[in-house]
Design goal:
By secondary structure, this protein is an alpha+beta fold. The protein is 36% helix and 25% strand.
Length: 83
């Protein structure tokens, strides 16, 4: 199924993803990917979304969403998850 991508564990991928986050020009302190899952051929990242006390988005939320989207584009063509 995943003949053109390399196998990687979620733990190893999160280490690589968080390194990419910290090196990105739009990094915000506290931005971190804490989970990744495979949805077909796409790697879906999630983590802190900087929500307010009522659970509503803050000004930082779009930046985090865009970073997780960037990670999906960056890593989905390279890796697939294995346990």
């Amino acid at each position: 199924m995943h003949t053109s991508t390399a196998a990687i564990t979620s733990e190893a991928l999160l280490i690589e993803a968080n390194k990419a986050i910290r090196q990105h020009e739009h990094y915000l302190p506290g931005m971190i990917a804490t989970e990744v899952e495979q949805k077909g051929d796409v790697l879906v990242f999630s983590g802190e979304f900087f929500l307010d006390e009522q659970g509503l988005p803050t000004a930082k939320t779009p930046a985090v969403f865009n970073m997780f989207k960037h990670l999906a584009h960056l890593f989905s063509d390279k890796y697939h998850l294995v346990k």
